[in-house]
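Researcher: Structure for this, please.
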Amino acid sequence: LSRRGPLGCLGLLYTPLAVILGEACLILPIIMNLTVVAVSSADARLAPTLFSLGARFRQLLFWVARETRMGIIAAVVMGFGRAIGEVGAAMMLGGNIQGMTRTMTTAIALETSKGEFELGLALGIVLLLIAFAVNGVVRWLEQRKT
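Model: Predicted structure, token format:
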């Protein structure tokens, strides 16, 4: 994304889109790997049974996703946890520009480096509460569906 890089002509460096692309590059392999593990651990008889019942490929995808939804949701939550704790990619690609590309993690890093430990701690607690809330909602949905 740098000016001399292969995507430099797009001018994405220090933009919100650059931060999003960087975070996506970090979490996509985690989510994909855990999703593959979840789908691989599904009952081996599921796909042959669905095909023998006349299911089309789209229907097969739907039912496999439905049967492995908890593993897929766990993969997404793991990716979310990785993304909200990421400082490096957001700092390199976004530049920590106030009002444009500053994220909570880069704000925490900035405030603590300036010696504003109270504000850094407060932002950390807010970020932690957001993570707990997301995990709580996922847990509530998991219990409600089973």
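Researcher: Any notable elements?
Model: The radius of gyration is 20 Å. The CA atoms of residues 27 and 82 lie 7 Å apart.
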